[in-house]
Amino acid sequence: xxxxxxxxxxxxxxxxxxxxxxxEGMITFFVNRSPRFNTLHKLLDxxxxxxxxxxxxxxxxxxxxxxxxxxxxGVPRKFxxxxxxxxxxxxxxxxxAFRMVKKAIDHVLSSDTDFVVGNFLKxxxxxxxxxxxxAGIPEAFHLGDNRIFNLLPLFNLKTDPRFTIGHPTxxxxxxxxxxxxxxxxxxxxxxVINESTLTHYLGALENLSLNNFLVARENGRIKxxxxxxxxxxxxxYQVLELTxxxxxxxxxxxxxxxxxxxxxxIRLNQPLKQLSMVLYAxxxxxxxxxxxxxxxxxxxxxxxxxxxxxxxxxxxxxFDLLKSCRGVSVQSxxxxxxxxxxxYKELQDxxxxxxxxxxxxx
Length: 362
Known about the structure:
By secondary structure, the chain is α+β, with helices and mostly antiparallel strands.
């Protein structure tokens, strides 16, 4: 058995591994990446990489890393997000997972990267052992719980007439950056979003142009922004099974969606139709961002999409702005591995939430 860097010739085996490692919950699914297992990662970060575990010519495990910049207590730092952690059932009870994760973390922390972030399903004991400092893996700092909110646009929601909603233009880029940088000051850890970052996202990613952004203006000034990203070109969730409660809701959608403005029903053995709400922020105007969220809800009632997903830390005040929205949530836990663990005390003493990078949604 060997752990090695993945190459182009591994694509078919890695895609097959993903199908075998489906994720169970309210919706049981597997992640389908296209056209290659790492297309999206490479578009965001040309230095991203994956390790695979190979046993007698068969790939039985993988873990990937994508890099990004974020501020930590106001200081720009380089991060690596550890994602795509998968392992065949037959290898989950031994030390294979430890060896794979340790090799990935060691590789990152031996570089110029300051932090590694790992995200695990809430209360998943098999995953949480990676954070406990065992088997040579560094001890991690618990950043907090995250929440994936899947908005179901069922009813019209009130918007605030003070704000004018529309799409930004190229001339608005500098003002958008000001909004993002102002918003970042509210957080312990926050993305570094400058004009270069925005230009890279807009140029590299399909379905994430300025036409996919919405801004709320007051007296001509941008007070809030969000983007709606359809990432199906790169990643989709192939639906395998639904829980009884979700089947009941889905049955109602199938029954009434032909005659009412309701979300598209979930189809088994087909990709889940969803949009990701990303790159949201406001400049001292939570009401403006709330109005944008309500506008998105109203716009996508009766559309081809079933869910509109927002991913944030559970204690992020953004969820106060979504209280009027209907939806279902999935929780996870995020851990931080640092080059210098002394920073854990500073992070512990800072009570602010963390604002999650776009890269953490891939």
